[in-house]
Design goal:
The longest helix is centred in the N-terminal third of the chain and has 19 residues. It is globular, with a radius of gyration of 15 Å. It has one domain: Nuclear Transport Factor 2, Chain: A (Roll). It has 152 residues and is α/β, with parallel strands linked by helices. It has 3 helices and 7 strands; from the N terminus they run H-H-E-E-H-E-E-E-E-E. Strands 1, 2, 3, 4, 5, 6 and 7 form a 7-stranded mixed sheet that branches.
């Protein structure tokens, strides 16, 4: 049985992911880090070590935002949010990400999902875990990613 999240909390959680996409695309890693809990874990795939703790986010993602991407657009859709029974929430969000690179070589595209856990804090809802799972890539800067686990 899926536990329902209060509509106001659901809206706040979905807005949190929209803010994540906004700050990523605006090259604002310090603002992006504020969306996470102090003990958060980000798993962008098997090619990178997990980013553990919000203090580790800026140094981990700033090089890519500044040196790899000349621009990006992350589109978050199809939000599914449910309560976890312990006062937190879980969510799965579809993502389409488009990137241009300082090195040229064409646009990179990725289609996937963010699998997230959320915790309510004194500042409001924050992301405590974010895992990127991918369905497909085209001219993307990565070779291997976590699968969405689609049944074949």
């Amino acid at each position: 049985m899926t536990l329902v999240v209060d509509p106001a909390d659901r809206t706040a959680i979905v807005d949190l992911l929209y803010a994540y996409a906004w700050h990523f695309d605006q090259n604002e890693p310090e603002k992006l880090a504020e969306l996470f809990t102090a003990d958060s874990v980000i798993d962008y795939g098997p090619e990178f070590e997990n980013i553990v703790g919000c203090d580790a986010i800026v140094p981990a993602i700033q090089p890519g935002l500044s040196n790899l991407f000349s621009s990006s657009a992350h589109h978050i859709t199809n939000p599914r949010v449910w309560a976890d029974g312990d006062g937190g929430a879980n969510g799965i969000f579809y993502i389409y990400a488009w990137h241009t690179y300082h090195s040229g070589g064409g646009d990179g595209e990725m289609w996937g999902q963010y699998h997230c856990r959320f915790r309510r804090t004194e500042e409001g809802w924050r992301i405590s875990e974010l895992t990127l799972k991918v369905m497909g890539m085209k001219n993307f800067h990565r070779d291997t990613m976590h699968s969405t686990g689609r049944r074949t």
